Structure formats: structure tokens, C-alpha cells
Amino acid sequence: MAIARGRPAGRRRGRAEARPGGGAAARRYAAQMERFAPVDIERVPRPGGGFVLRSRAAAPVHARCVGDWLVRWAAEAPERTFLAERDGAGADAGWRRLSYAEVLAAVRSIGQALLERGLSSARPLAILSGNGIDHALVSLAAMHVGVPVAPLSPAYALLSRDFARLRELVAALAPGAVFVADPGPFAAALDALGASRGELAILPSAAELARTSAGDGVDRAFAALGGDTVAKILYTSGSTGAPRGIVNTHRMLCANQAALAHGWRFLARRPPVVVDWLPWSHTFGGNHNFHLVLAHGGTLYIDAGKPAPGAFDATVRNLREVPSTIYFNVPRGFDMLAGHLEADAALCAAFFRDLDVVFYAAAALSPATWARLEACARAAGASVAMTSAWGSTETAPLVTQVHFPIARAGVIGVPVPGVELAFAPVPGGDAHELRVRGPSVTPGTWRAGGGIDPVPLDELGFYAMGDAGVLADPEEPARGVVFDGRITENFKLATGSWVRVGELRIALLAACSPRLADAVLTGHDRDEVGALVFPAPGQVVDDAFRAALRAGLAALEGGAAPGASSTRIARLLVLAEPPSIDAGEITDKGYLNQRAILRRRAADVARLYSADPAVIAR
């Protein structure tokens, strides 16, 4: 079998990364390279067309189960703070901290309490709470004794009016009990689930559960854990359909962290310190970030803020007090952070003081935000690497990782050791679908009672992710992979040209930054691409707003190839009604379900292609 050898990043100038010539830029580049493992991948032909990328490094040895990390650090660093959260909401609230030894003791006691209440591998534990220490303790306890834990998104209880999605998830899960850290805000949802009628068992507080004396049963249950033991059931975001309960085994979670650590060598130099708000009901916050801290004996400061007007102040306060070694966020969060860093030199210095990497997730960062963050880092005299990764709930989540300097957003890295990434041609188009094979791929979806329905695999045993990808440099795979949108979102114009929705949507949002929160592209079987757009929070839709969007369309037009209708957006319609979580138009993480929006707002699509004066045209 012929193999195309990918040279380690840094040996050849490429589009995804370029070695600077000298001076301060060269020193920053060298400092970044020291943090990472060299990129060494190979490309092999894929039977049936396309190709496969894989690391030449062997899959690293990983832990047996999640609890092994906790046991290790409780022995090696018992007094080190593992979890911290604000002890109250006031301006003078300090931090409530729990050490590794304290967390392990609580986990063993709570694990005993769960076993005594009849929870088991067939009777999972549902958690309906935001991020918090009590949530973490109960979740770790369940996994410690072999009880699958299913953190349900609080949005289905707090943002919904009819609780239909929440009832659907609970019925499919059939939990043995539900834990709610603060029942007050969830009272209506719990009543809708039948808790007041005794149809659903609600656990007492974490403090009460922790008063249980741990016995030999906890140790036996922990010793019986293996790689195939179900650790979590995580529900997909619903951005492409109804949420599905994805089984996450201990092998998936542990193999993921071992592969992550291989590329990010800096994790072995000092325990990570992370301030993070990303929800534990999803794989990015709950698996990638939480387990990264635990696997490396670090400290997690649970951030009650989030990137929304009025809520981001809490994040800024936390970042001012706690210099992090890694910072994770979504593009909207970085947009807001950049403004604070530019306006506050003391905050900027504190933020970059100990920082190794900035990690963006979800949609790619806009070029403007990328440049602002880099300028802030230079002003603080810091050398910080901009990084990203790619994966899904079905892969726990890491498939590709950026562990080399990149010069622009959109590059999602290269496959981590032990994981193979196939590029399979899409029939009828010029795109390649990304497919994955490796130890972090889920065995299937949860079935009430403990059954697992296998996920579909192709003839070579790869799981189809539904995303498209291209190489940043077709001649040099080590330059990384570029995300090329969702296969199911792409469509054809009447001209026969394919529209790459993901790439064009990001370009539109960048051209109209910061005025738009998101957009849905239209144009299937039409002559032109259009977009239904949602204003960003706080934006006033007036003449100045419309003029700015028209200027954004003009800028987008200027960057398009001559005659390429598939890379131009001809018209916009600003929607007054925000996307509805009850109608399935938006997930709790803020991702839009394009198909649901286009189906529900068919009348708006018709208006978009009419002579309606509300339409903004280039």
C-alpha cells in the first residue's frame, strides 16, 4: 500500500502555518513549538476512494477508568484543590474549594448511597443541574461505582415552556433517580416529569448523600469497572435532529485524554489551572475540559458566567483573580473577552500571565477577533498558541487536535494517535466526508434498561461524522485539516453549483461582525444564495444597522471569485423572532438547526426572494 508521508509541521512553509523569519516573531514561534509534540502523520489510500490520515505514533497507554485519575491524585497531591466555585453570588463572595482527598472521600460515600438506592448499570442516574461542585461529586460517584450518569441540559427545563424535549429524554433514559443540586428553579420541570406524584425518584442533596458511610460494596464496584463499562450517556445537541443518548464508555474517555496529552506536552510540566463555564451536559465541557483537569491533577474553577450580556461580568471577575494555564471558550465568548482585554491592561496582564494556549471551539473565530487576541497577547508580552480541535459526542470528543502553530482559524488539527480519519468522497459532489475509527468511537446509543443500539459503521468500520473536511495543504497533510461544513447542510443552486454552507456562513458573520449572532443560508434550487439572519444581543435594527449589513455583503462580494454564485450572498432578511428551543430551532449551546429553521420559517424564505422592502440586497 502506497503511503504519502506527512512531514512534521515546521519543516516546510505551508498555508496553515508559516515559520517566521526572525526577531520577536521567531521567538514566539519557538516558544509555541516547545509546548507541542511534533506532527508526524501518514496518508494512505482508502479502498473505494479517498484517503485516510493517521498518526505514526502508537496509541498511548491510558487509564482503566475515570476514577483511577481521582484515586491517583488523592494519593499524590491530597491537599491540592481540585474543584472551586464561588461561595455565594455577592461581590465579596470567595471560593469554596475541595481538595483531591476531600473529593475522593465524598465520591466514595455518595457512591455507596447510590448503590443502596438501587442504581446500577441498567438504572442510570440523571442530573438536572448546571455546573457546580455538587454536580461534579454526584457524577464522579456514579461513574466510580458503575452507574451510568446522564447530565441533562438545564435549558430543557429552564428555557422551555412545554418541557416536551425533557420528557422525551427522560422517557428514553428511564433513570433510576434524578439529582438536582438546586430544586427551586427546576420545580416546574420536575412536576412535569411526575416527581410530585412519585413517578420519578429525586435524590437528596449531595451533602446528605455524602453522610453515608462507604463500605466494601464501593470497592468491589470500583474494582469491577472495565473499558466497556458505560460511564456516561450524553445527549447530542440536536443541531441536526432530535437529541440521541450517546453511550460513553470508560475506555472512550480515558483513551481521549491520553491522546490529548500526547500532543499537548505542556500538560506534563505543571498541573493545569482552568476557569471554565462550558456546560457539562455536552462533550466539550463535560469530557474534554473537566477530564483534562482531573487526568492531570489540575484545578478547575467553575465559572458561573457565560458569554451573554450581563452574565460575562462574572467571567471577567474570575479571570482577573485566577490566571489560567488554558482558556477555553466559543467564538462569542472571545469576541466579548477581547473588548475587556483591550480596555483593561491589568486584566490583560493577569489573563496572559500563565497562559499556554487559547482554545476556541464551535464555529471558527472571525479573523478580526483572532487578530485582536493576538494583539492583546503581544501587548502583555506573552507567547500564547491559538489552538482548536474537532470531534463529536460520539467520539468523546477528540478526533483531531491542533498541536502546532496556526496562522488562521478553521484549521482543526491532525488525527490524534490511535484514531484514523478517513476522507470519503461524497456522491454527486466534490466534498469529502470525514469518518472516524478508533478506541474513542461510541459503541452506540442508549436503550432504556441498559441496552445499546450500535451506531452504523461503513464497510471499513469507520463512523461517518456527517462533516466535510479538506487538507489545509493538499501536498502536505501535516499542515492539518480544515473543517468544510456539514454534509447535510450543503445544497445546490439552480445553476448546479454546490454551496459550502459552513464556510460561507462563517465568512458572512465575519463580514458583518459584530452585528449578527448567527445566520441560516438559503437557496436550494434557486439562482442566488440568501440568508435569514439573527441580530446579536443588544443590536438595534435601524437604518445604520441595515447599512452595515449591506456593507458586509459588499465586502463579501469583493472577496468572491468572479462569476461564482455559490460563494456570494445576494440578500438578507433580519428575523425579529429569535430561534425557538421548543421548536427545535436552536440547541442549548446556541447552535442553530438549519433544517428546522428553514422548515418552520418557510414564509420568511419566500419573503427573502421577493421584492419585500425589508430584504437587504447587495
Descriptive report:
Helix 3 crosses helix 4 (133-144), helix 10 (250-263) packs across helix 11 (283-295) and helix 18 crosses helix 19 (602-608). The strands form eight sheets. A ten-stranded antiparallel beta sheet has the order 1-2-3-19-20-23-24-18-17-16. Mean pLDDT is 89; it is low at 1-18. The chain is built from 19 helices and 30 strands. It is of the alpha+beta class and 618 residues long. Strand 16 and strand 17 form a beta hairpin.
Strand order of the largest sheet: 1-2-3-19-20-23-24-18-17-16
**What is the class of the domain at 491-617 in the CATH system?**
Alpha Beta
Number of helices: 19
Share of helix, binned: 25-40%
Instruction: Please give the CATH architecture of the domain at 491-617.
Output: 2-Layer Sandwich
- Let me know the average pLDDT: 89
The general outline is globular
Total strands: the figure is 30
Low-confidence stretches: 1-18
Radius of gyration: 24 Å
CATH topology of the domain at 491-617: GMP Synthetase, Chain A, domain 3
Largest sheet: 10 strands, antiparallel
The CATH superfamily of the domain at 491-617 is ANL, C-terminal domain
Strand content bin: 15-25%
Give the N-terminus to C-terminus distance in angstroms: 51 Å
Would you tell me the structural class of the helices and strands? alpha+beta
